[in-house]
Specification:
The protein is of the alpha/beta class. Helix content is 45%, strand content 13%. It contains 19 helices and 16 strands. It has a five-stranded parallel beta sheet with strand order 2-1-3-4-5, sandwiched between helices. Strands 7-10-13-6-14 form a five-stranded parallel beta sheet. Strands 8-9 form a two-stranded antiparallel sheet. Helix 17 crosses helix 18. The longest helix is centred in the first third of the chain and has 30 residues, at 108-137. It is globular. The chain starts with a strand and ends with a helix. 33% of the residues are buried.
């Protein structure tokens, strides 16, 4: 969990400042409010995890404030404090959703222990919500054909679904999912998890391109309190978090080369050691990796370990791009129109037949993600219950990735570069020009890691 953010609400300045000072010294992110109106303003503008709330307040009593907080911000936990700790107030506070209650005077250490208990509850609640998310992301269709992004009648998608079903039953086999960006690799990983015997355990998704090299071991394997500056408590790594479940390593090709041997060792030994500890912790994790890069080619160029590639690729599932399964486009078009009509509260009585024809002839460089975004935007701007071709912006800067700020102008369909490698080289050159050849800034523009940009520059021989 990120740094815990706490709001202290008490009209007594001495009490308010004393609690805030103590919590700040204990590395919490603390804000203060004397009045309920100030508290509501802070809650509206900030992501608060825990509120410490006095019962006796000006403007309105703390129980009313508690009721409003739990109604508007149900994920926020509230610890009540009061100089009048009568039993009726305690019962009413708990009935309205308070996590704990302390009569004044209280020990600050007890407040800290209550925050730690509440934080553990929040973490467990977040894990439960993640499990719920895993199931909701995989729609009811998964029980028949594994998820909306895999809906299709093409032989290619039927083969993918068949491979998912087979490997799900062999729960310790590592899986490598390949395919272009936007083809639904994470959904395939979630589908495998859902179909396996691990489906009641945790599915944890990690974007390898977003992890700084200096934090790799701590994030993956955990650390022991005091093992380095900032390690203020023991921390479980992702392998421990996903124990008995599934760990999904997205963009595995962007993992720093220096760290790949450590990952390989854990995959072979099935145990981890936290940073700063020699103790071995057994882990039972199904690892699924994904990449839109050619890992075998990267291995020949010494940019990815060949032994790690072979370890990850025990079972490979390739997701074809949308342009190679055009027969699925009409099915996906209908699905997303129906889906966004429900979620946006729109009613579409007619879909112009020319839309399907145009979509089938369009290359969709952004694959299903682009198709989905196109349909959502079109439904937002459509009028009179009719979805027209003019509601879509095929090939515009609003639907092509990377982002608009590094393009000179929106290309017309006839001007689009259909060679993906050439398009990628063009975007990298524009990002480098825009950032005066500063790789870090160029990587930010492209929304990729510095290491990923460096590899792509070497691949395309860009100096």
């Amino acid at each position: 969990m990120e740094k815990v953010k706490i709001l202290v609400v008490d009209d007594e300045q001495r009490v308010r400042d004393e609690i805030a000072e103590f919590l700040t010294e204990n590395k919490y992110d603390v804000q203060k409010a004397a009045l309920p109106s100030e508290a509501f303003n802070i809650l509206q503008k900030n992501d608060i995890h825990i509120v410490i709330l006095d019962i006796k307040l000006p403007e309105m009593d703390g129980l009313s404030v508690l009721e409003i907080i739990k109604d508007k911000y149900p994920d926020i936990e509230v610890i009540m404090i009061s100089g009048h700790g009568d039993m009726s107030s305690v019962i009413e506070a708990m009935r309205k959703g308070a996590a704990d209650f302390f009569p004044k005077p209280f020990r600050l250490m007890d407040i800290n222990l209550a925050i730690q208990r509440t934080t553990r509850f929040i973490n467990l609640s977040n894990k439960y919500k993640e499990l719920e998310k895993n199931y909701s992301l995989i729609s009811s269709e998964i029980q028949k054909s594994i998820g909306h992004q895999l809906i299709g009648k093409s032989k290619a998608m039927k083969h993918v679904i068949s491979m998912m079903s087979k490997v799900a039953n062999v729960e310790n086999t590592t899986v490598l999912i390949t395919g272009e960006s936007g083809t639904g690799k994470e959904l395939v990983a979630r589908g495998i998890h859902y179909l396996s015997n691990r489906n009641k355990q945790y599915f944890h998704s990690v974007n390898c391109s977003a992890i700084p090299e200096t934090l790799f071991e701590s994030e993956f394997f955990g650390h022991k309190k005091g093992s380095f500056t900032g390690a203020v408590e023991n921390k479980a790594g992702w392998f421990e978090i996903a124990n008995k479940g599934t760990l999904f390593l997205d963009e595995i090709g962007d993992m720093p080369l220096s760290q790949q041997a450590k990952l390989l060792r854990v995959l072979e030994e099935r145990q981890v050691s936290r940073v700063g500890s020699h103790d071995k912790i057994p882990v039972d994790v199904r690892v699924i990796a994904a990449s839109n890069q050619e890992l075998i080619k990267m291995s020949t160029e010494k940019e990815f370990r060949l032994d790690l590639y072979h370890r990850l690729s025990s079972f490979v599932i390739h997701l074809p791009p949308l342009r190679e399964r055009k027969e699925d486009i009409p099915v996906l078009l209908k699905y997303f129109v129906d889906h966004y009509c429900r979620t946006l509260g729109k009613e579409v009585k007619k879909v112009d037949p020319s839309i399907e024809k145009e979509f089938v002839n369009y290359a969709f460089p952004g694959n299903i993600r682009e198709l989905r975004n196109l349909i959502e935007r079109a439904l937002i701007i459509s009028d009179n219950g009719v979805l027209k071709l003019s509601d879509f912006q095929l090939g515009s800067s609003e639907t092509v990735e990377p982002p608009q700020q590094i393009t000179e102008s929106a290309p017309t369909p006839n001007e689009l570069i259909w060679d993906l490698e050439e398009a990628e080289k063009t975007l990298i050159r524009k990002a480098l020009d825009r950032s005066n050849n500063n790789k870090s800034k160029a990587a930010e523009l492209l929304k990729i890691s510095w290491q990923s940009l460096d590899r792509r520059m070497k691949k395309f021989d860009l100096s």
